[in-house]
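Problem: given the chain below (173 residues), write out its structure.
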Amino acid sequence: MFFELIGTIIAGVAAGLIVWAINRTIGKRLPKWLAPVAAGTAMLAATISSEYSWYNRTVATLPPGSSVAYTVEEQAFYRPWTYAKPYISRFAAVDLAAKRTHPEQPGQRIVDLFFFGRWAKTAKVPILFDCTGGRRADIVDGIEFGDNGTVLNADWVTMPDDDPIQQAACKEV
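Solution.
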């Protein structure tokens, strides 16, 4: 966040200096208000560009074997450009490379689910999926596994068939 602020300020200063230099070169024929307007416009453009490129930059840093399960697009009245094209403010990714299974429970797997937010700290949550039963359970303190990989005291949540996280976690790699 700090580097984006610095980048935005630098864009504004650079645009203002360019207009100032052009004005000096042509003999001060431009209106005095043009340099601050150019600086403000450049700062706004840098902010919008950063906002729309955040998702692609973040996805590019995901480890190999990760799959984006779903995204959330947002619009805001104080960002009127988002009504023309909403921006992705958060998303969830499934780490399929770190998938864990038990030989006696082939229809179940534990995957790490990562939650990313534009201005939020990344969260990692291990989740148990019962792919054959269409349900999931959060792995929390107190959950126990039997010797044959059965889950003894999980709070199962039934998932709809079209749930994107379930589909990503249960697809074969």
